[in-house]
C-alpha cells in the first residue's frame, strides 16, 4: 500500500502550478458582474483527456475537439456561457475556427479547444466572444470568476482543489471547476467539468482514470433524466510538479469528481434532497445498474421525494418496469435502515409510515432495494423534482 495524504485547498484552479484562469463579461449575460467568457491556460502544452456526451447530436465544440486527432496537446481552453453552439451544423465548427484564428492573433497558443453551454440552436456571437481577447488578463489566476462564468441555471459555483503529498516528500495539486444543475443525466459523462493538475501523469493513465472516475461519479447522477448535447469532462496535465503516483492520483481524482457530482445534484434546479438509490441482490451488475438508474430518473419517484411521501409503491413499480429480473416475494425496500416493504410487511403500518416520513424530511438519505436474485449491486444518485424546476425550465429562454 502506497502512503499519501490528500489535503483540501481553497481557491480552486489557482493552486495548480503553471495554470492561469479568468473570465470577463462581453454582453451575452445581462449581469455584468458575472462573466460569460472564461479561459484556462497552461504556460506549457498539456496532455489532455476528455469524455463527452453520448447524445447523437454532439455540439460543435465537441466535434471540433475530435478533429484534432489522437493524443494532441493543448495549452488553452476557451469556455462561453449563454450559447451551446449545438445543432448549428458545419457553420458552428467554422465559427470556432474563426474565434481561434482571432485568438492566435492575440496570444501564442497550441491547439486551443473550446467548450460552450447555454441555449441550443443558435450560432455563437463571434464578435462578442472575440472582444474578450482584448480585455482578458491571460496571466491572471482567478478560479472563482472562471467558475461563476460557466454557470447557467446553477445557483452556486462549483470548484474544488486538493494537494496530494507522497511518501517521498514530493507533492502534486489537482483542481477543478464544474457547472451543472439541470438537463442532467450524464451518459459519457447541462454539465461541464474542467480538471487541471500539475502531476506528471502519463497520457495512458489519464484516459483510463478519467473514464473510471466518470463512471463512479457523473455517470451515476440524474436531476431530470435528460442528457445534454454538450456534456464534457476534461482533464489537463502539464507535469510541472514532476510528482506522480497512480494509486494516489486515482484516489484523489475519484474523490474530486464524486464531490462535484454531488454538488450538481444538490443544485438540481430547485432540488431540496439528495438521494442514493442502492440496488443490490440483482441478477448481475448490469441489471442492478438498470434498476438503480430507473429509480434516479423516475419522475414519479422524484415528485414523491419532493412531497416527502413514503409511497413505496412508486419504488416497486419503477423496478418492475425497468426490465430486470425481480420477484415481489423476494424484494425488500429500506429508507435508510427502516424496512418499508417486504413479503412479510406489504402494508405500511402507521408507525413505520411516520418513521419513513421523518427520514424523507432529511436533506440526504438512502433508498436500498434488495432484489434477492443474485449478487449484482449498483448505486445511482438523484434528487427531488420541485415546482421551481418547472418554473426555471419553462422560462429558460426568457
Report on the architecture of this protein.
The model has no long low-confidence stretch (mean pLDDT 91). The chain has two domains: 4-266, L-amino peptidase D-ALA esterase/amidase; 274-394, Ubiquitin-like (UB roll) (Roll), CATH 3.10.20.340. The strands form two sheets. Strands 1, 2, 3, 4, 5, 6, 7, 8 and 10 form a nine-stranded mixed sheet that branches. A six-stranded mixed sheet has the order 9-15-11-14-12-13. Helix 5 (203-215) runs parallel beside helix 6 (246-266) and helix 7 (285-297) packs across helix 9 (312-321). The protein has helices at residues 60-66, 89-106, 126-131, 143-149, 203-215, 246-266, 285-297, 299-307, 312-321, 350-360, 387-394, and strands spanning 4-8, 19-24, 37-52, 73-80, 113-116, 158-166, 171-179, 192-197, 221-222, 232-237, 274-282, 332-335, 338-341, 364-370, 376-383. The longest helix is centred in the middle third of the chain and has 21 residues, at 246-266. It has eleven helices and 15 strands. The chain is α+β, with helices and mostly antiparallel strands and 398 residues long. Strand 6 (158-166) and strand 7 (171-179) form a beta hairpin. It catalyses: L-glutamate + acetyl-CoA = N-acetyl-L-glutamate + CoA + H(+); N(2)-acetyl-L-ornithine + L-glutamate = N-acetyl-L-glutamate + L-ornithine. It is found in: Cytoplasm.
How widely separated are the two ends?
55 Å
Number of discrete domains: 2
Strand content: 25-35%
The largest sheet, given as strand count, sense and whether it forms a barrel, is:
9 strands, mixed
CATH H-level superfamily title of the largest domain:
L-amino peptidase D-ALA esterase/amidase
- Unreliable stretches: none
CATH architectural label of the largest domain = 4-Layer Sandwich
